[in-house]
Amino acid sequence: MLFSMGIPFIAHSSLFSFYKRFPITIVGLQVPKFLQKMDQKKPYLTVILIQSIYAGMFLLSKAAFDGGMNNFVFVFYRQAAATVFLVPLAFFFEWKTAPPLSFVTFCKIFMLSLIGITLSLDIYGVALVYTSATLAAATTNCLPVITFFLAVLLRMEVLRLKTTAGIAKILGIIICLAGALTLAFYKGPHKKLFCLHHLFEHQHSQTLRNRTSSGETWIKGCFLMVISNTCWGLWLVLQGRVLKSYPSKLLFTALQCILSTIQSFAIAIALERDPSEWRLGWNVRLLAVAYCGIAVTGVTFYLQAWVIEKKGPVFLAMSTPLNLIFTIFCSAFLLCEIISLGSLLGGLLLIGGLHSVLWGKTREQRMLDENCLPTHVDKECTELKPVTARSHH
């Protein structure tokens, strides 16, 4: 717990931030280069932590649903747990320094919570019941493509088709779409890997396995996963704009949790009236709620806000292939999930497409950072940022 919450506090005021303000000398001594490099690597280490936490979410959520827990009730409990965890921290650390919250900003945060958290998680829960943890992790690799499209539509990203970078992005998008279609429509040979004992075996599990083996149900689950990721992608893109008007990341995250708790309760109570479905015992249900509420909603949502502010939404989305790798091995070992060839091929296509998009974005950003100096001028550079020879004389 303390380790998970360490990075957010570092993001606010840390030794690294102190060195960043005084990069040349401190008390007559030069700042070690490795500290400066560590400061630069913080976003990369943060996204690795985020994706490993998400892998745990896929596994525990699937185990809870296999145990018969209602997915709408689950979303309410995880958001309530996150609210209880985050609100005291937000008030303690940021209440005095927080900017005033206008009605317009509050409405924006309300809609962000509804689309990106409440609806996204409810749809995701239904889809996960129909599919598997591995497929859930694999389909999240569509998120960068969705995020990129939304960012282009909102003019937060630029797509230039006459450059190598632009062609790489388009090629990556096509490969990602091919991967998504492979996941939905092709299963191929199945194999159970590594499994010695199912960690969270339930009597309800076999019924769900039989249901998810249906091709129609599997396609329906894939479709719902894409819808969930579309809501999630829109949430990632729009966060950047809202954070500009309300930069208190911890309060911003806590307020989203409060609003999402209210929204998810309204949905859950409307769809599930049986009191027995709302009971939590000392089992995987309680573990999944606590983990998803504290580690996922409480920690990663805040970390994501920090990464988006530092590197942008597309950078965060490009790290999603990591959770597929973590989930494949953990689900096969802990949940005894049967891994299909279609899932592996689809996942590989998605990862390949994401690397193509990321390569194009990195190349484009590097050329912009160099300001297209005369020593680097070429046709692509001219397309990215026109510079005349006279301006350098």
Automatic annotation (TrEMBL):
<feature type="domain" description="EamA">
    <location>
        <begin position="44"/>
        <end position="176"/>
    </location>
</feature>
<keyword id="KW-1133">Transmembrane helix</keyword>
<dbReference type="InterPro" id="IPR000620">
    <property type="entry name" value="EamA_dom"/>
</dbReference>
<feature type="transmembrane region" description="Helical">
    <location>
        <begin position="250"/>
        <end position="270"/>
    </location>
</feature>
<dbReference type="GO" id="GO:0016020">
    <property type="term" value="C:membrane"/>
</dbReference>
<feature type="transmembrane region" description="Helical">
    <location>
        <begin position="100"/>
        <end position="121"/>
    </location>
</feature>
<dbReference type="InterPro" id="IPR030184">
    <property type="entry name" value="WAT1-related"/>
</dbReference>
<feature type="transmembrane region" description="Helical">
    <location>
        <begin position="282"/>
        <end position="303"/>
    </location>
</feature>
<comment type="similarity">
    <text>Belongs to the drug/metabolite transporter (DMT) superfamily. Plant drug/metabolite exporter (P-DME) (TC 2.A.7.4) family.</text>
</comment>
<feature type="transmembrane region" description="Helical">
    <location>
        <begin position="43"/>
        <end position="60"/>
    </location>
</feature>
<feature type="transmembrane region" description="Helical">
    <location>
        <begin position="166"/>
        <end position="186"/>
    </location>
</feature>
<feature type="transmembrane region" description="Helical">
    <location>
        <begin position="72"/>
        <end position="93"/>
    </location>
</feature>
<keyword id="KW-0472">Membrane</keyword>
<feature type="transmembrane region" description="Helical">
    <location>
        <begin position="218"/>
        <end position="238"/>
    </location>
</feature>
<feature type="transmembrane region" description="Helical">
    <location>
        <begin position="127"/>
        <end position="154"/>
    </location>
</feature>
<dbReference type="Pfam" id="PF00892">
    <property type="entry name" value="EamA"/>
</dbReference>
<keyword id="KW-0812">Transmembrane</keyword>
<feature type="domain" description="EamA">
    <location>
        <begin position="220"/>
        <end position="354"/>
    </location>
</feature>
<feature type="transmembrane region" description="Helical">
    <location>
        <begin position="315"/>
        <end position="335"/>
    </location>
</feature>
<protein>
    <recommendedName>
        <fullName>WAT1-related protein</fullName>
    </recommendedName>
</protein>
<dbReference type="InterPro" id="IPR037185">
    <property type="entry name" value="EmrE-like"/>
</dbReference>
<feature type="transmembrane region" description="Helical">
    <location>
        <begin position="341"/>
        <end position="359"/>
    </location>
</feature>
<dbReference type="GO" id="GO:0022857">
    <property type="term" value="F:transmembrane transporter activity"/>
</dbReference>
